[in-house]
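Q: I'm writing up a methods section and want to include an example of the input and output format. Could you take the sequence below and give the corresponding predicted structure tokens, formatted cleanly so I can copy it straight into the document?
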Amino acid sequence: NSQNHFCIFTFFVVGAGLAPARTGDRKGAASDFEQSIATSKNDNVVIRSKISLAAVCYQMGQWSRAADLYVEVIPRLENKPPTDQIMFYAGAALRRAGKWRDATNYFARILHRFPNSPVAADARSIANGHRLYQVNCAVCHGDLGDANGTLRQLN
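A: Here is the clean output for your methods example:
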């Protein structure tokens, strides 16, 4: 949910002291993170800035950009929390960007690497929901829910 996503965003901004998150000024915060990414020579600052920028992009509905940023940094993160939550938001952003297969892979990775994580149940539910959609709904509604399924293409 967006409240948890904001907590991840706040953790990296406040906990690491990376950039001022201006109250209600997401574009300003995004600009600060982009500047930090462009100018920092410290890999940890760049990683945390990208995660924070991804959170801002997610909040602004820029799903593809958020997903790209999350996907870029995840391989560079340690195999411990909050990596599980960052992977969850990568999956959520990928899903919203219409990249269900990639999203499902991230949810599956959470279940494999972090089976006892607080986000594991949600990851399982979303992955199962997509599987059920593919079996029961996609033939009419299409993979993206755009009403361009196999049956429509046959007409």
